[in-house]
Write a structure and sequence with these properties.
By secondary structure, the chain is an alpha+beta fold. The chain has three domains: 161 residues, Orthogonal Bundle (Penicillin binding protein transpeptidase fold), CATH 1.10.3810.10; 110 residues, OB fold (Dihydrolipoamide Acetyltransferase, E2P), CATH 2.40.50.140; 297 residues, DD-peptidase/beta-lactamase superfamily (Beta-lactamase), CATH 3.40.710. Helices cover 30% and strands 15% of the residues. The protein contains 18 helices and 23 strands. Helix 2 packs across helix 3, helix 6 crosses helix 7 and helix 7 runs antiparallel to helix 8.
Length: 755
């Protein structure tokens, strides 16, 4: 009030004395020929009228309307309420609307923690926030603040000693990067920003005073950022050292020359250093601030020469093979070696920014709330979110939905499918398509469980041919993996494109019992009046406003999630995916030591690598690949690249949680069967496992059939497609070109039969 409206509690909405003074000043300025903006005499009430009901137009008509509205506002509301409206509405710069938001933005404090000097600065801003930005106009900001403090002293709001103390203090703002309260949440925040802009428009986003409650879990978000970066670094180290950032002239003045070398985007929090000398077992380095340190030989051994096409040369034999005096490199200060032995002070490790990229999403499988999301190595390097924007081939991580479709069409986990060579006719004058297993071997007749645990491509193609790609596409659509999956057999091997968020949400719907959930980064949005304008949870709690409850009266929320798959069928897939972790391609994940299930995925030529998995209450998806698709290298698969990231995340995320088993729905019959044959196991069979059957499934017997092809041609099973297509290369995760379309869906097998 001292700065804007000293007589606020005395006037009736318009300060006529102030209007007269402003008129005289404007006439004087006009008479002197001064080209100045007219001086106003708006009271706080008039500013409330303008901010809520009028525009910023500079005209007499607008001022008349403003005065009329001010009188009406004064009659309708108390002075305290008018002041509250004003304080919560005014724009104070840096995207802050209202004094509470400004206190957080400028000083990271609540209003009642502000000093006199800080409150005076905020009171100085309404006149012209951009003109008094202390980073751009520090002297103007201080002068205006000091004027406000002087007015407060004159009005008796503060004592003279308080004013002197405030006048002597500098304007100390917190650093803008302190706004990032959650480590590694840049991609998360940017996706929320895009969502808000799409929902409400840019004006509402930046000026609407929206309060957004996100779903992010700070601990899981920091963990996700850490483990993904470690995983990308581990892959990058396996494929060699691409050389120093540059070179400077060694000798006196090296720190000045080093400071002129800009660090590459994405290097933070690493440091830029130059090699001062080369030793037999270490490199001596210097940093920009003039300090020195050492890179010991164990932190250099990984730096074999990187070669094209993900190949690499022999390991270095001495430190000078890695870098030479004057080379500029990235380093990170470390305290101990990989095996835990402590290093001396000022010890550093050699670093380089990976070329490979990746993404990680952690989701609550019961609600769809995204708890953590990392979209790449560094947001400062690339704002492209590989978790939500990158369309990549899921490879074998799509197979569970093919097998889920089969289970819904009468198959059991012990149904037999032939794992043998197959050739598919693509059309006139087109070569046969011959998909292959990753190891190019064959198991013969094998159960559906083995087909997923060992990720057998040939079994999956035969199974998709038998149940029909129409049924597979319907399942993919229900679970949101693809919007419109092409009816081509190659799609059963994960040849389509999807995102990490879509795929992990589909996996989440497996573990939650086949109930539909929608992934969200936002729990709730409120407008500036506190009214909820969006809530992810659509359930209504009748009676929750009561203040007293007994054990019999506690309200229960109705589960309104749509059932999109039979819960027993969903559990059968979950149970099979547990086997992937225990015995199959996801064995690296078993080190977590808790009940987990999941599936690896590797696309053709190892362009895309995945691991999608879950505990009973946490679903996590990991993707690793190059932005410009290229092979990750020989023997680089979802099992070697992506699953270690999932493992490291789950080890920490589940550290303080007990070994919660997967929930078994009613209608499941657990039977001991032989792991290989799927037949009921003898009492002492060492290969026996518990298998999940539906209550009406016929158990396997010695009279089973094996799902084979429809004909034999030169030793290969052949299928005639309905339409012609281009040649499709084979590979572990499926082809990249159009594949043959499946024939019409056959009749479902009899319940309990083996096919």
């Amino acid at each position: 009030m001292s700065a804007e409206d000293k007589g606020f509690y005395q006037h009736s909405g318009v300060d006529f004395g102030g209007v007269a003074r402003a008129a005289l000043i404007n006439l004087r300025n006009k008479g002197m020929g001064a080209d100045r903006r007219p001086v106003g005499a708006s009271t706080i009430t008039q500013q409330v009228a303008k901010n809520f009901l009028l525009t910023n137009e500079v005209s007499i008509s607008r001022k008349v309307k403003e005065a009329i509205l001010a009188f009406r506002i004064e009659r309708a509301f108390t002075k305290d309420h008018i002041l509250e409206l004003y304080l919560n509405e005014i724009y104070l710069g840096l995207g802050s609307y209202g004094v509470a938001a400004a206190a957080q933005t400028y000083f990271d404090k609540s209003l009642d923690d502000l000093t006199v000097a800080e409150a005076g600065f905020l009171a100085a801003l309404p006149k012209a926030p951009n003109n008094y930005n202390p980073k751009i106009h520090p002297q103007a900001a201080k002068d205006r603040r000091d004027w406000v403090i002087g007015r407060m002293a004159e009005d008796g709001k503060i004592t003279r000693s308080e004013a002197d103390e405030a006048l002597s203090s500098a304007i100390e703002l917190r650093r803008r990067d302190e706004d990032q309260m959650i480590v590694g949440a840049d991609y998360f925040a940017e996706d929320i920003r895009r969502d808000l802009a799409a929902r409400y428009g840019e004006d509402a986003l930046y000026k609407g005073g929206l309060v957004v409650r996100s779903t992010v879990n700070a601990d899981l978000q920091a963990l996700a950022s850490k483990v993904l970066r470690n995983g990308l670094m581990a892959y990058d180290h396996r494929h060699g050292w691409r050389g120093p950032l540059g070179h400077i002239q060694p000798g006196p003045g090296w720190s000045t020359r080093l400071a002129s070398v800009p660090p590459p985007a994405g290097a933070e929090p690493w440091l830029t250093a130059t090699v001062l000398s080369e030793g037999d077992q270490s490199l001596s380095i210097g940093l920009i601030d003039g300090t020195t340190g050492t890179i010991p030989w164990p932190e250099l051994r990984w730096a074999k020469e990187a070669l094209p096409h993900a190949h690499f040369g022999p390991p270095p034999r001495k430190p000078s093979d890695v870098a030479k005096t004057g080379d500029v490199v990235l380093v990170e200060k470390i305290a101990k070696s990989e095996d835990g032995k402590p290093y001396p002070a000022e010890t550093y490790a050699l670093r380089q920014i990976p070329k490979v990229e990746g993404a990680l999403v952690a989701e609550d499988p019961h609600t769809g709330r995204v708890l953590a999301m990392v979209g790449g190595w560094s947001y400062s390097q690339s704002q492209f979110n590989r978790a939500t924007q990158a369309q990549r081939q899921p490879g074998s991580s799509f197979k569970p939905f093919v097998y889920l479709t089969a289970l819904e069409h009468g198959y059991t986990p012990s149904s037999l499918v032939l794992d043998a060579p197959i050739a598919l006719v693509q059309g006139p004058n087109m070569p046969l398509w011959r998909p292959k297993n990753y190891e190019d071997d064959f198991l013969g007749p094998a159960t559906l469980r083995v087909g997923i645990e060992k990720s057998r491509n040939l079994m999956t193609v035969r199974l998709a041919q038998a149940i029909g790609m129409d049924a597979v596409a319907d399942t993919a659509g229900k679970f949101g993996v693809y919007d419109n999956l092409p009816r081509e057999l190659s799609m059963a091997l994960g040849a389509g494109d999807t995102t990490v968020l879509k795929l992990i949400n589909a996996y989440a719907m497996l573990v939650n019992g086949g109930k539909r959930i929608t992934p969200t980064l936002i729990d709730r949005i409120q407008d500036r009046q506190g009214k909820t304008i969006f809530a992810h949870d659509k359930r209504f709690c009748d009676g929750c406003l009561q203040t007293q409850f007994t054990s019999d009266e506690m309200p229960r929320l109705t589960d309104i999630r749509e059932q999109i798959a039979d819960p027993v069928t969903a559990y059968q897939i979950v149970h099979i995916l547990e086997g992937v972790v225990e015995r199959g391609t996801g064995r690296a994940v078993s080190a977590v030591g808790k009940p987990l299930a999941g599936k690896t995925g590797t696309s053709n030529d190892s362009f895309d690598t995945w691991f999608l998995g879950f505990s009973p209450d946490l679903a996590v998806g990991v993707f690793v690949g190059f932005d410009e698709p290229q092979s990750l290298g020989e023997h680089e698969t979802g099992a070697t690249v992506a699953s270690p990231v999932f493992r490291d995340f789950m080890i920490t995320a589940l550290k303080n949680k007990g070994p919660v088993p997967f929930r078994v729905p009613s209608g499941v019959r657990m039977v001991r069967v032989d792991l290989i044959t799927g037949k009921p196991a003898a009492p002492n069979d060492p290969k026996a496992i518990w298998e999940a059957f539906k209550s009406d499934d016929r158990l396997p017997s010695d009279e089973e059939d094996v799902l084979e092809g429809q004909g034999v041609d030169s030793g290969f099973t052949t299928f005639q497609p309905l339409t012609e297509g281009g040649e499709v290369p084979s590979g572990p995760g499926g082809p990249r070109a159009p594949a043959p379309q499946a024939p019409a869906q056959p009749a479902a097998p009899a319940a309990g039969g083996l096919y």
